[in-house]
Write a structure and sequence with these properties.
By secondary structure, the chain is α+β, with helices and mostly antiparallel strands. It is built from 3 helices and 5 strands; from the N terminus they run ββαβααββ. It starts with a strand and ends in an 11-residue tail after the last strand. The structure holds FE2/S2 (inorganic) cluster (FES).
Length: 112
């Protein structure tokens, strides 16, 4: 089991270091560590409440977003160039040390 360190920047600006197992999603890890992230559709790409902003340095290491993810991200509030859906990002060993910002607002598009 390979463990990596991730750093989440919370709404209040404070940074939280967590240890995560490779293969887990960013959404899962954030929720397991009690961080504020909704994940309303439980990873089914039907909301955008798992929106995270990835550190530029690590963004290029991530697999490209699918068309479905891009479409869902377009609905997220506070979208940035390095935005991704936390439920679609799986941790790998090369992401050790990655920083992720948890945006202040999320928009739940379920039912729209
Ligand atoms: S949890 Fe809904 S899109 Fe990620």
């Amino acid at each position: 089991m390979t463990l990596v360190r991730l750093y989440f920047i919370k709404h209040d600006g404070n940074e939280v270091e967590v240890t995560a197992e490779c293969g887990a999603s960013i959404l899962q890890i954030a929720q397991e560590n009690g961080l504020e992230i909704e994940g309303a559709c439980e990873g089914n790409m039907a909301c955008s409440t798992c929106h995270v902003i990835v550190d530029k340095e690590f963004y290029d290491l991530l697999p490209e977003a699918s068309d479905e993810e891009e479409e869902m991200l377009d609905l997220a509030s506070g979208l940035r160039a390095t935005s991704r859906l936390g439920c679609q990002l799986l941790v790998t060993s090369e992401l050790d040390g990655m920083k992720l910002i948890l945006p202040k607002e999320s928009r739940n598009m379920i039912g729209f």
